[in-house]
């Protein structure tokens, strides 16, 4: 969600990126023997939290607590680092139209690129269920999958955000006797190429340009005295009713020898 009150723009890039990342894996299903398809639940949180919950449920099996459902997935932010390979000129500006305003626009400075590390964990008690989930994810990333995120670089913008699969690992926590609950964890590491955008400022628009011509460059000072605005005057102006940005529907008027009074 982006918040724009006309003067300030609160982008919430991290919150938005995390939500988009989780949505990608929100519809994965598996088939268990003798049952129909079952959707695999996913939630934000560190892997250790869910593993600790599983271990606690096993210890308190005689209580009225409800054991955590497996298989399931969890995801979390693992790191944030500046991306120098995607950096653009910091003086670049993006202009944003102000509804109903013809004399000024909002401007947003060039966004700053960062790599947002995301970690996805597949937690299961059997290899079959874990592999069903794992093998649905891998074909999507080769090793990159790109999503479009709205309003990341200003209101009304759409930014393509590549999500790159950078590594995978497997962990089997089965230890102890036959009563110990087995836990298999597949970990997938991703890198999201996100952009952070600063505040918005207003900028006035140039709607008329005056050009002055002199026929005698050597005596231009004298001509300026007699003709303060030059011997020939040309004004190019955009109609007052036209709103930015300019296109083929705008009215541009050229006036020659206008009177400055």
Word description of this protein:
By secondary structure, the protein is of the alpha+beta class. It has 2 domains: 200 residues, STM4215-like; 51 residues, no CATH class. The protein is 16% helix and 40% strand. It is built from 4 helices and 16 strands. The chain has a 6-stranded mixed β-sheet with strand order 5-6-9-12-11-10. It has a 3-stranded antiparallel β-sheet with strand order 7-8-13, with no helix packed on it. The chain has a 3-stranded antiparallel β-sheet with strand order 14-15-16, with no helix packed on it. Strand 1 and strand 2 form a beta hairpin. The longest helix is centred in the N-terminal third of the chain and has 13 residues. It is elongated, with a radius of gyration of 30 Å.
Highlighted features:
elongated; three-stranded antiparallel beta sheet; STM4215-like; alpha+beta; six-stranded mixed beta sheet
Quick recap of the structure?
This protein is an alpha+beta fold and 261 residues long.
Protein topology:
Elements: E1 3-4, E2 9-10, H1 13-24, E3 29-31, E4 37-39, E5 42-44, H2 47-59, E6 72-82, E7 93-96, E8 104-109, E9 112-124, H3 127-137, E10 144-150, E11 158-172, E12 184-196, E13 200-204, E14 208-213, H4 220-226, E15 232-238, E16 252-256
